[in-house]
Amino acid sequence: MIEITCTQLVSMTEEQVLRYNKQNNVHLFDDNGDVADGDMYLLPVDEIIPFEGMETVQGFSISAYTENANYAEFTGFSSRGVAYTISRDTANAIAADEYVLADLDS
Question: How many CB atoms lie under 10 A from the CB of residue 86?
Answer without folding.
Answer: 19
